[in-house]
Amino acid sequence: MALAYDGAIQNLIDAFSRLPGIGPKGAQRIAFYLLGAPDAEAQGLADAISEVKSKVRFCEICGNVCETSPCPVCQDPRRDRGVICVVEEPKDVMSIERTREFRGLYHVLGGAINPMANVGPADLRIPQLLERLGDGSVTEVILALDPNIEGEATTRYLAQLLGPLGVKVTRLASGLPVGSDLEYADEITLGRALSGRQAA
Questions:
Q1: Could you say which of 17, 45, 57, 143 is the most buried, measured as most Cβ atoms within 10 Å of its Cβ?
Q2: How many domains does the chain fold into?
């Protein structure tokens, strides 16, 4: 029988190990780090968790995380209201914002179609997207979903759903990352890079 720590330390390890991306060993390292950390640092972490749970919500329009709804992006009058970029999760909004290339609005689906995890179209924020397209002011929807099986399935589903609405539906270009070697590229990535080639 495997030995476990007693009481509070084991409870903390168990709590950390339930977080995504943290395994049992990582959870144990974090727990013992906090045990040896100054009280102010441990209290700061507890306060930050409590604050995020009490203050952060989802934007009533786009689904992004915010402290006041609508979020700052949806409230910004300088944003192009004719273009909506559809992403899976709020963290994807920040990834696109860091490029400083996109000046439109966002729509967070809250995931992707994944039959293995029992996530279908009804589990995503697709009705809210359709509602946003209802007044005809949106001219383009950019599908910026993860380039994996679930993201591809969701992209295809949305493209078929939105196509008849008369709105331009585009997707992010995909290809080879800078600094990579052709020999390590998979066939799908290399094929998309070829079909999406540009003038040199």
A1: 143
A2: 2
Cα(46)–Cα(34) distance, rounded to whole angstroms?
Answer: 11
Q: How many Cα neighbours within 13 Å face the side chain of 117?
A: 10
Q: Around Cβ 73, how many Cβ atoms within 10 Å? A: 17
47 with 32: CB under 8 angstroms?
no
Tokens of 178: 């800078």
CA–CA distance, 61 with 138 (Å, rounded to integer): 14
CATH of the domain at 8: 1.10.8.420
**8 Å CB contact between 138 and 83:** yes
Pair 141, 168: CB distance under 8 Å: yes
What does the alpha-carbon distance between residue 37 and residue 22 come to, in Å, rounded to a whole number? Answer: 19
What are the tens digits of pLDDT across the range 28-82?
999 999 999 999 999 999 999 999 999 999 999 999 999 999 999 999 999 999 9
Gap between the Cα atoms of 175 and 197, Å rounded: 9
CATH of the domain at 124: 3.40.1360.10
Task: Return d(Cα 87, Cα 62) in angstroms, integer.
Answer: 10
Closest CA to 146 of 170, 102, 111: 111
Domain membership of residue 15 as a residue range: 1-40
Look at residues 182, 117, 112 and name the one whose alpha carbon lies nearest to residue 148.
112
